[in-house]
């Protein structure tokens, strides 16, 4: 076999073995390379290959393809991919501007808003980040509860003297996703921090059913009632909590909770 | 038809009439009333209509019929086909109830409510009493066992190979059916044909890209006779999320690599944490989004017990005395914000759980030395181990099931092993006998749910069962190769139980054989069995409660 034949065999063997691990591969890069050779003036082809380079992490090649794509048609068509590229490179201002350009072309594009929110957040522009999170939530098919929490925390950082906007956002999330306890827990903590114990109690009480009236729910409830000066209710909850723990299967978390109850009661006794 | 009054611009309008060419508009408050009446018609309680007025049509064929969220009081029936209604009842020849289906994400769907617990219901799609009838059993009441005293669960990992093609040709055709036959043989011969209560999918159940068409070929066309009577509960695997580009030169030094990356589209390697970025063929996000989320109707709002997650990507539910959690090791696990949200939800969920047994499923195994999938190397697996295994141990999870690696591995009874495989120490991380050997969990060595040392439920058994559609074969790696071949440590993770009998397919700490898992829960014990394609039990372990 000559050198070319050996290379061909090696290539085929390589693909064959790769296919054994992940068969059914569609050689998109090869196809795109070929198509670009045949239609070098096609902007969508250069864009597609740039997208693949970005996903793959080959940012230098992605830049090259996007620059080429921008020359072959309306440069705005390249803006979303360019935004992703700049985000991956840590160039958040450029990334934000790219997504802004793209949104002028595609006003409802949810992912552009999410990336803009994240870019603005990294740059410390909290109001802008929040605004973009809100656009994202209103347009996304599957907003994640974690993104709502991130946005609410950003609201707090943005306006540490006014938790109202963060609480409003959490209530919107609960209205859309259902009573997610971790969202209500954060809202409850914000109410406690601003000394609004009535609202904190109301919020935490509303989570009782969702949390199955768990020992952890009771313990937090007892602490809130205690902070609010409602000691009778707090003691009642601690009593119920101890009875419940005796009935439940012991776990390390529940053993830890017993210890925390002990600390809480000792502190109480010193009041 | 004219609108009966001038409409204010701000009024919400709803088109009600369906007669072609006609319609009328209602203001929103009238609309709510009309919808309420419509809902009462749609969700007819059992036996609400006299038998003679219902189900006189011919039975209508379906291309896809399956159950979702069968609880102690409700069930969801989903299908595709010409039928528009479900006829149902307590006896197969008296299907008095009728419920109209509504079209949701390409499926017709009926939610039956007001059902009795632990009761058989019969149904057809638009059929009469003489038509083929399916049936299902509702769940027992929370905490209770069904009348037969046992909850019988089938787990399938990486079963979706019927649609796996290479160069346009199927490469594992018939193998998922062989595993199904093995299960059916086992069930008939060794489990007195006990009906299934739950089917749990461990991910990668529709190769290669999790398209709707692949779900049809790899799941709905294969398990047709089981999924119309037992609810399916899935989790997201890497192949559910389409694909992405991969540089072959990262794992194989081909001569062409000298010129630069050699990138191809591979199914199952998406790195996105966003389901909206689902990409079935490598040319960018599909407009329809992730098919998995369109096909399945999962309890994001604690519809069947557990704590509301707010997303169908991970969820929990109760069935009798078993609590099941499905985590998202593919998407939510990939983003730090989403991963922590999932962990905090899990803690809330487990804190509120009072059922006897807790089962967790997700795709990426925390402990594995599978071919191509090493839990010391893959970030998804490392993240699941480091972030979630401590939660399982602290909150009383009993068993954890994953797929991803196309083989079978089953751990010892583990606690505290969150590092790399070479940090595993039997004396520290599992229960041992007087000679220091880890306990096998069989016979007199059955695992105790409550540890005598800690007086707490602080251990779990982790099973990798990703061979329900194919099994990796021994294929020693040439120098420089790491993928598509077996490294010397293949199926040799020390946290997994040992196999020393030298049978074909048996490795030091795992089995390279096709099969599936059957899990049985009663009041006092939980038994997990690996069933091969011949219906033989190749491994089992038992966990007992209350010193039983």
What is the number of domains of chain B? 3
Helix content of chain B: 10-25%
Q: What is the number of strand segments of chain B?
A: 31
Unreliable segments of 5+ consecutive residues of chain B:
1-53
β-strand percent of chain A reads: under 5%
Shape field of chain A: elongated
How many strands appear in the DSSP assignment of chain A?
Answer: 0
The end-to-end distance of chain B, rounded to whole angstroms, is: 73 Å
Could you say what the CATH topology of the largest domain in chain B is called?
Purple Acid Phosphatase, chain A, domain 2
State Rg of chain B: 25 Å
Strand % of chain B is 15-25%
* Oligomeric state of shown chains: heterodimer
Q: Roughly how much helix do the residues of chain A carry, as a percent range?
A: over 70%
Shape label of chain B = globular
Q: What is the assigned CATH homologous superfamily of the largest domain in chain B? A: Metallo-dependent phosphatases
Radius of gyration of chain A: 28 Å
Structural class of chain B: alpha+beta
Instruction: Indicate the low-confidence ranges of chain A by residue numbers.
Output: 1-27
Total number of helices of chain A: 15
Major beta sheet, strand line-up of chain B? 15-14-11-29-30-31-25
Largest sheet features of chain A: none
């Amino acid at each position: 076999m000559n050198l070319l034949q050996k290379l061909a065999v090696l290539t085929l063997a390589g693909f064959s073995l790769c296919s054994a691990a992940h068969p059914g591969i569609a050689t998109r890069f090869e196809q795109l390379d070929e198509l670009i050779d045949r239609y070098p003036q096609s902007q969508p082809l250069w864009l597609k290959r740039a997208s693949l380079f970005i996903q793959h992490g080959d940012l230098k090649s992605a830049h090259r393809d996007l620059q080429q794509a921008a020359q072959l048609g309306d440069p705005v068509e390249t803006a979303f991919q360019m935004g992703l590229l700049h985000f991956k490179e840590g160039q958040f201002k450029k990334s934000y501007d790219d997504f802004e350009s793209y949104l002028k072309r595609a006003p409802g594009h949810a992912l552009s808003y999410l990336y803009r929110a994240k870019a603005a957040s990294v740059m410390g522009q909290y109001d802008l980040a929040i605004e973009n999170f809100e656009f994202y939530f209103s347009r996304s098919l599957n907003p994640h509860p974690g993104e709502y929490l991130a946005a609410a925390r950003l609201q707090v950082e943005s306006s540490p003297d006014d938790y109202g906007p963060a609480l409003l956002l959490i209530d919107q999330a609960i209205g859309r996703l259902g009573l997610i306890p971790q969202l209500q827990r954060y809202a409850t903590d914000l109410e406690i921090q601003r000394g609004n114990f009535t609202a904190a109690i109301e919020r935490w009480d509303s989570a009782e059913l969702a949390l199955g009236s768990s020992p952890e729910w009771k313990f937090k409830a007892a602490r809130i009632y205690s902070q609010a000066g409602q000691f009778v209710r707090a003691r009642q909850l601690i009593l119920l909590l101890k009875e419940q723990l005796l009935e439940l299967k012991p776990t390390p978390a529940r053993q830890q909770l017993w210890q925390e109850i002990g600390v809480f009661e000792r502190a109480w006794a010193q009041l | 038809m004219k609108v009966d009054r001038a409409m204010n611009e701000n009024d919400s309008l709803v088109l009600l009439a369906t007669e072609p060419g006609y319609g009328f508009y209602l203001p929103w408050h009238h609309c709510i009333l009309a919808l309420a009446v419509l809902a009462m018609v749609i969700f007819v309680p059992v036996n609400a209509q006299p038998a003679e007025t219902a189900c006189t049509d011919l039975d209508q064929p379906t291309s896809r019929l399956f159950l979702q969220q069968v609880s102690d009081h409700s069930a969801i029936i989903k299908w595709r086909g010409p039928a528009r209604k479900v006829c149902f009842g307590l006896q197969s020849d008296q299907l008095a109830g009728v419920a109209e289906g509504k079209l949701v994400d390409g499926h017709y769907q009926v939610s039956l409510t007001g059902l009795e617990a632990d009761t058989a219901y019969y149904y057809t799609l638009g059929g009469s009493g003489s038509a083929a009838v399916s049936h299902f059993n509702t769940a027992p009441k929370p905490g209770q066992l069904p009348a037969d005293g046992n909850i019988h669960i089938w787990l399938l990992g990486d079963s979706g190979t019927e649609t796996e093609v290479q160069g346009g040709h199927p490469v594992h055709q018939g193998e998922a059916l062989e595993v199904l036959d093995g299960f059916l043989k086992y069930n008939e011969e060794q489990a007195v044909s006990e009906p299934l209560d739950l089917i749990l999918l461990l991910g990668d159940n529709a190769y290669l890209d999790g398209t709707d068409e692949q779900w049809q070929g790899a799941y709905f066309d294969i398990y047709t006779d089981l999924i119309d009577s037992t609810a399916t509960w899935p989790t997201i695997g890497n192949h559910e999320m389409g694909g992405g580009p991969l540089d072959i030169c990262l794992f194989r030094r081909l001569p062409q690599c000298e010129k630069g990356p050699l990138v191809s589209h591979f199914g199952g390697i998406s790195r996105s944490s966003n389901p909206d970025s689902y990409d079935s063929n490598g040319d960018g996000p599909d407009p329809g989004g992730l098919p998995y989320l369109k096909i399945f109707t999962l309890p994001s709002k604690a519809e069947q017990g557990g704590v509301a997650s707010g997303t169908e990507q991970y969820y929990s539910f109760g069935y009798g005395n078993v609590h099941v959690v499905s985590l998202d090791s593919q998407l939510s696990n990939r983003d730090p914000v989403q991963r922590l949200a999932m962990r905090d939800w899990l803690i809330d969920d487990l804190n509120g759980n009072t059922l006897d047994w807790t089962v967790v499923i997700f795709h990426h195994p925390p402990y594995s030395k599978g071919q191509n999938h090493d839990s010391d190397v893959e970030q998804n697996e490392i993240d699941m181990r480091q972030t979630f295994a401590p939660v399982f141990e602290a909150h009383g999870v009993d068993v954890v099931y994953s797929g991803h690696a196309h083989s079978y591995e089953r751990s010892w009874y583990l606690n505290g092993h969150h590092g790399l495989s070479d940090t595993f120490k039997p004396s520290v991380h599992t229960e041992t006998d007087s000679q220091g050997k880890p306990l096998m969990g069989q016979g007199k060595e059955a695992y105790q749910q409550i540890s005598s040392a800690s007086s707490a439920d602080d251990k779990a058994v982790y099973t990798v069962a990703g061979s329900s559609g194919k099994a990796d074969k021994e294929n020693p790696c040439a120098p420089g190769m790491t993928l598509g071949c077996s490294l010397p440590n293949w199926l040799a993770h020390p946290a997994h139980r040992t196999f020393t009998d030298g049978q074909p397919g048996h490795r030091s700490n795992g089995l390279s054989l096709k099969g599936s898992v059957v899990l049985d829960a009663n009041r006092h014990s939980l038994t997990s069995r690996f069933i091969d394609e011949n219906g033989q039990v190749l491994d089992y372990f038992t966990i007992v409660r209350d010193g039983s």
